[in-house]
Amino acid sequence: MAMAYRTGPDTPAPRSRRLPRPLRAPFEARTWREFCYVLLSLPLSVVFFGLALGLVAAGAGLVVTFVGIPVLAAALAMCRGFGALERLRARTLLDLRIGTPAPVRPRGGGPMAWVGAMLKSGASWRHLLYALVHMPWAVFSFAVALPLWATAWTCATYPLWHWVFPAFVGLDGLQLYGDRTHAHYLDSPAELTATSAVGLLLVIATPWIVRGLTTVDRLLVTGLLGPSRLEGRVVELESDRGVVVDTAAADLRRIERDLHDGAQARLVALAMDLGLAKEKLHEDPDAAAHMVAEAHGEVKLALQELRDLARGIHPAVLTDRGLNAALSSLASRCTVPVTVTVDLPTRPAEAIEGIAYFTVSELLQNVSKHARATRASVDVRRTHNRLILQVSDNGQGGADITAGSGLTGLAERLDAVDGVLTTDSPTGGPTLITAQLPWRA
Q1: I want to staple 435 with a disulfide (CB 3.0 to 4.6 A). Which of 57, 200, 222, 389 is the partner?
Q2: In CATH, which of 1.10.10, 1.20.5, 2.60.40, 1.20.1090 is domain 231-313?
Q3: Tens digits of residue pLDDT in 302-320
Q4: What are phi and psi for residue 94, nearest 5 degrees?
Q5: How many helices and strands in the chain, by DSSP H and E?
Q6: Is 95 left (phi over 0), alpha (psi -120 to 50) or beta?
Q7: 324-342 pLDDT, tens per residue?
Q8: 432 vs 167, 203, 274, 363, 394, CA distance in Å?
């Protein structure tokens, strides 16, 4: 059962929280896990280094006989196995969670295709580099952490066990220094106190030194054993491409539905009305004229629907006059008064301008439908190479990107072009939604 501590005037805070963080660090589980990581790094890195260096040297020496190429590939595969173990160790002891590099994908069948793919894999060579570089660092970390840790706790607890020396060793205490003629032992009360004080200082400092050492290990694991930036970017672009394709398909379905249910149906009815008017033209000219007049009204409605549909695809005012005029047109159709401020030195790229327009359009629709606001504002500006859009209102708040609403889809659309959508909408309001887009002029 989880226990929650409530702090207040009548309830004291937990004892562990009364201590400052530097004093808690020597007793925290994180400190001991990091120390265990440093201790394990030495034997593991020596094994990794020896096996990797031995196989690579053997493969390089046998390259002239062609046998060395499969040996090199096997060495790289072994290093990838070492990397998997190191990622597991870092996740368990350092709480460092990184992704797995892209697997080796041979472009054909057979062992030679696998050998070629392994040798061409940049991640495999990074794993080999880790096996070679990490060993000297592990030796240094071990040589610093273990003596420091042992000295700190030995000195800090010296007053508790100094009696061991006179009782079992025949010495007055821990020897500070000595030669053939003279020796000095830590045995007086003042010396015991001073030794314990120095030990306590070292106990407090050691966790932070160990944490600094493991910071380098974190950088090595992240930089050499995780996915490269290029691989991450490829995965991100593949995801963004899927979002763009889905969005485009949804837009096409919407346009098809609007045409089928709106203008197309109206034009079909218009054609039927004109056919009936043509048949009655000679028999009943007055009725035919009335039907033509109704058809004329239907033509106007069909044209208006087509204009609205075209404006939904890309408004003409945006192309002709830019964001200032287009957003002012949007504001005029909002159900609440909207103040529009556009401060742009030039126009951004056409695609970015269109995304900005439809982003503000959807946000203002949310203001009209859900915000219960009495006023809103739109602010557009350029900061460095980013186009910043901010839509705010004084409504009821509660807008959340993670709630699966229209804001989620909008955030995915912006992410597809390296954009970002953030919300600041506490319950009760006000709401401030900020969209950042690349300029790309």
Answers
A1: 389
A2: 1.20.5
A3: 666 666 555 555 566 777 7
A4: -105, -5
A5: 16, 7
A6: left
A7: 888 888 888 888 888 888 8
A8: 74, 48, 52, 10, 9
